[in-house]
Specification:
This protein is mainly alpha-helical. The chain is built from eight helices and two strands; from the N terminus they run H-E-E-H-H-H-H-H-H-H. 75% of the residues lie in helices and 2% in strands. The chain starts with a helix and ends with a helix.
Length: 196
């Protein structure tokens, strides 16, 4: 193959690859934007410094909709945006890195791994509604576990105090978020099948 033809093919290949790269970047940024919007749908609870937020719903949904690496990248981008001081975390007294190091830091730091876990489990389970529920529940459990461990380390509270402040108040709402994320993911999956 001549050098000119090789150079042409390389240039053409890079031009064709650019839209895929741009598309992936756009999806990651849009997904991190979705989490940011959902994080601002929050209700502060008077008895705990952890607000009731819709951000975990977005994490569950993105885990079900995106491939594992893309889901993790989107949530990683969200954390980087928040650490840089952008107003993407749930409203509160803390911003930037202080928010990541505060009482909700454990939940936030778990987001990328939880989204990747959800995506990995669902893609290997056949894609049914029950599988979506189980995958989302596993990811939500990971978020709650990391959040509770972080909260315990930060407050030096007893196991009972940590459970009553960082886990139990969120269980009912998390059940609804799991079901809603699973339902939306299955609906999106069916829509894609019919549109082909």
């Amino acid at each position: 193959m001549s050098k000119e033809l090789s150079a042409q093919l390389t240039a053409t290949d890079s031009i064709a690859a650019a839209p895929a790269w741009a598309s992936t970047t756009g999806i990651v940024l849009a997904a991190s934007g979705l989490v940011a919007v959902c994080a601002h749908i929050a209700i502060p609870l008077f008895f705990t410094p952890v607000p009731l937020s819709m951000a975990p719903f977005a994490v569950l949904l993105l885990g079900l909709l995106l491939r594992p690496r893309m889901a993790s990248a989107a949530l990683g981008a969200y954390l980087i945006e928040g650490a840089a001081g952008l107003p993407v975390f749930a409203p509160g007294a803390l911003t930037g890195m202080a928010h990541l190091l505060g009482p909700t830091g454990g939940y936030l730091i778990a987001y990328p791994a939880a989204a990747a876990l959800i995506s990995y489990l669902w893609r290997r389970s056949g894609g049914s509604f029950t599988a979506a529920l189980g995958s989302a529940a596993a990811g939500n459990l990971a978020i709650l576990l990391c959040g509770a461990l972080w909260f315990a380390a930060l407050t030096h509270g007893s196991a009972q105090a940590v459970l009553s402040l960082a886990v139990v108040p969120f269980l009912a709402g998390d059940g609804l978020k799991i079901a809603a994320a699973a339902g939306l993911a299955i609906g999106y999956q069916r829509l894609r099948r019919f549109s082909r």
